[in-house]
Design a protein that fits this description.
70 residues, alpha+beta, four-stranded mixed beta sheet, 2 helices
Length: 70
């Protein structure tokens, strides 16, 4: 079961900080981050890719889901 970070309705840099906390506690499971702006998607993507993670982005009904894993 993935770790879920729901950062919808939050403005940057808060979604990135929430994702950073999840990445710091990474134990091998997929981290799923929910956001509602493309700016947050791009910022989180850039952050986790710099940390060596892979990101898969899906758009669902105006929200974005980022699946993050090593």
């Amino acid at each position: 079961m993935p770790n879920l970070v729901d950062a919808r309705g939050r403005s940057c840099p808060e979604p990135v900080i929430m994702t950073k906390n999840a990445v710091e506690n990474y134990k091998g499971d997929t981290i799923e981050v929910m956001v509602d702006t493309m700016v947050a998607v791009e910022n989180i993507k850039r952050f986790v890719e710099n940390k060596g993670f892979k990101v898969d982005v899906q758009e669902r009904e105006g929200d974005y889901s980022l699946a993050i894993k090593k």
